[in-house]
Design goal:
Helix 2 crosses helix 3, helix 4 packs antiparallel against helix 5 and helix 4 packs across helix 10. The protein has 14 helices and no strands. The chain starts with 7 loop residues before the first helix and ends with a helix. It is mainly alpha-helical. The mean pLDDT is 91. This is ABC transporter permease. It is a multi-pass membrane protein. Its main location: membrane. It comes from Massilia violaceinigra.
Length: 360
């Protein structure tokens, strides 16, 4: 009997790998057209981003942020929602973190200040996601449209707040004052000196913990079952007793909170102050990570590391190979999004046919 649907291992592992290889092959062609050797360039990228301990540390630093934005998009996807607003929610999360820091960083010890700032970032991110969730649940406004709009509103609002209220008197840099030392996330090189003088910090361990909690909540709890049921079939979930509107709002609140927490790594772990445009596209990369990782914790982790490696390795590669500009790696990211998103089932018929041939 012929198989009509791909098994889980094929759809969760084989298809993403084939899509990734396709994107990398196109990228290799582009690098060749730029006059450089794809194999040599790949070797430089891997050495810079993975093999070199300091480079790996930077890769994991970038991945820490991407894990949170990937989780933000994934939890919404599980409810059948496409939250494109993680960028704006991360931006507002940075504001919540900064409000706590500027108010309490000279009066609280680090063990109280850091959790308080994290709670502030999560609350502000969740608050920014609430209205799109409410409009989807109660008014039928599509969450894709509202979250896109809220990204632009967040950017304008943050520009106004930073320039008007947060720039210290006499300063020209559009940023808040530097936080006190108590507000700095502990760096991992304090325990592992081999990592070098890099910004990799405890946020990476918190991100791993968030992946574990996400996996347990989505696949090992009754709430997770209701969440997935809502995403698969709202009518069936409704007849099973699930409040669809409440589930949509709760999913968006959690999604926004996770996006807000992404600001912790960038602000408290690296710059130690709030600056304009600090998300730097991390919210949009989270969309690619959720699609490529198939909303699975392991997939999200591996996808985050991959994008972190592209940023770290791409920076060093562009320095060693002037013919390959830094923008090339934005193009490669776009290719990965294209193949793993819009063309995610490109190889599904061929894989299904191959499986049926093997069975026959």
């Amino acid at each position: 009997m012929k198989t009509t649907e791909l098994p889980r291992w094929a759809s969760a592992f084989v298809l993403p790998v084939l899509n990734l290889l396709s994107a990398l092959l196109v990228a290799a062609l582009v690098i060749h057209l730029l006059g450089e050797s794809p194999t040599e360039s790949l070797g430089i990228l891997i050495d810079s981003a993975v093999i070199n301990p300091e480079g790996l540390s930077y890769t994991l630093f970038y991945a820490s942020t991407f894990i949170f934005t990937g989780l933000s998009v994934s939890i919404a996807m599980k409810a059948g929602l496409f939250n494109i607003g993680s960028e704006g929610q991360m931006y507002l999360g940075g504001l919540g973190l900064t409000v706590v820091m500027l108010t309490l960083d000279h009066s609280l010890p680090a063990w109280l200040l850091i959790p308080a700032a994290m709670i502030g970032s999560a609350l502000f991110g969740a608050a920014w996601a609430f209205l799109p969730g409410y409009l989807q649940a109660r008014r039928g406004s599509h969450v894709v449209v509202t979250t896109i709009m809220f990204n632009f509103i967040a950017a304008s609002l943050m520009n106004f707040i930073i320039v008007k209220y947060l720039i210290p008197e006499g300063q020209q840099n559009p940023a808040s004052r530097v936080f006190s030392e108590a507000g700095a996330m502990p760096r991992l090189n304090e325990w592992f000196p081999v990592l070098g003088d890099t910004p990799l910090n405890v946020s990476f361990l918190i991100a791993i913990g968030a992946l574990v909690i996400y996996g347990m909540m989505v696949w090992r709890s009754s709430w997770g079952y209701q969440l997935r049921a809502t995403g698969l079939n709202q009518n069936a979930a409704h007849y099973a007793g699930v409040s669809i509107s409440r589930m949509i709002i709760v999913a968006m609140l959690i999604s926004g909170a996770l996006a807000g927490l992404a600001a912790v790594n960038s602000v408290m772990g690296s710059t130690h102050y709030l600056s304009l445009n600090f998300p730097a596209g991390a919210g949009f990369i989270g969309i690619a990570i959720a699609l490529m990782g198939r909303q699975h914790p392991v997939g999200i982790f591996l996808s985050s590391v991959l994008f972190g490696a592209l940023i770290q390795g791409g920076f060093d590669l562009s320095l060693e190979k002037p013919n390959i500009p830094q923008e090339t790696f934005i193009f490669i990211q776009g290719l990965i999004i294209l193949f793993c998103g819009a063309m995610e089932n490109l190889y599904a018929p061929a894989v299904l046919k191959l499986l049926n041939i093997r069975k026959g």
